[in-house]
Amino acid sequence: MRITTWNVNSIKQRLPHLLAFLDEARPDVVCLQELKCQDEAFPRAEIENAGYAVEALGQKAYNGVALLVRKPLAIAPDSVRRGLPGDPADEQARYIEALISGETEQPVRVASIYLPNGNPVDSPKYPYKLAFMERLRLHARALMEDEIPVVLAGDYNVIPEPADAADPEAWRSDALFLPASRAAFRAILAEGYTDGLRACDPRDGLYTFWDYQAGSWQRNFGIRIDHLLLSPQACDRLVSASVQKHLRGLDKPSDHVPVTVELSAG
DNA sequence: ATGCCAATTCTCAATTGA
């Protein structure tokens, strides 16, 4: 089972690239972030025609997450969770989760996460980010209890280590790289989760985001902020992980590229 | 230190992102 996470930065703008990616890469599960569209406007028919079941949580203009599941895999009935537990007042569309099952594969629980950016750090946005990460840690812990493999995939908006940025000094006081942000990320890992890409590829220079500005792509001024975190049972099945970097070089790209892990059937 | 770019919105300027 191949599971991909991709912040598309507007599902409407990126639909041609997404459909081409589904056709070429044929991932089994796709976790999308930054749909920037309400559920009524989600291009459901086009994606279903490509062979995928869709569950989405959208809102106007900002945020928005979705899960795509390629047939014959399916989303277990009544298994979809919309919104991260822990704060009923949080109305931002940043979390969707479901149990994925198939005839020949062991089930896997998969979440698509759009973690808050947190900038500027002296605004309420930064404490919101840290509170969201603590909620995610607690939920990640709860999800391990039934021992079904868990993959928490998404745009974490966290640069875990200096090796995950081409120029770490440039991010020193940014919400993506502040010590408290990195500590909150490590606290999730400490619950027993593994950074899937890092577990497969120890090299420096693995990036998943290049800013549209200042020629970041051309100069390879990237950062690694899109992650797939695997519970112990999921990590036992980890076969490979990779970044689909070439998509950043297309016309009208997202500023993020897909990241994919492959799990054995069980 | 700021803008650089891209997308969205009750658009022609402001807001958000990272």
Structure write-up:
- The chain is of the alpha+beta class and 266 residues long.
- It has one domain (2-263): 4-Layer Sandwich (Deoxyribonuclease I, Chain A), CATH 3.60.10.
- The chain has helices at residues 11-25, 44-49, 125-143, 179-189, 196-200, 232-235; strands spanning 2-7, 29-33, 52-57, 65-70, 74-75, 81-82, 95-101, 108-114, 150-155, 194-195, 209-210, 222-223, 226-230, 238-243, 259-263.
- The structure holds one DNA strand of 18 nucleotides.
Topology:
Blueprint: E1 2-7, H1 11-25, E2 29-33, H2 44-49, E3 52-57, E4 65-70, E5 74-75, E6 81-82, E7 95-101, E8 108-114, H3 125-143, E9 150-155, H4 179-189, E10 194-195, H5 196-200, E11 209-210, E12 222-223, E13 226-230, H6 232-235, E14 238-243, E15 259-263
Parallel strand pairs: 1-2, 8-9
Antiparallel strand pairs: 1-15, 2-4, 3-4, 5-7, 6-7, 7-8, 9-13, 10-13, 11-12, 14-15
Helix pairs in contact: 3-4
The chain binds one DNA strand of 18 nucleotides through residues 9-10, 12-13, 34, 36, 60-62, 117-119, 157, 171, 174-176, 209, 211-216, 223, 225, 252, 255.
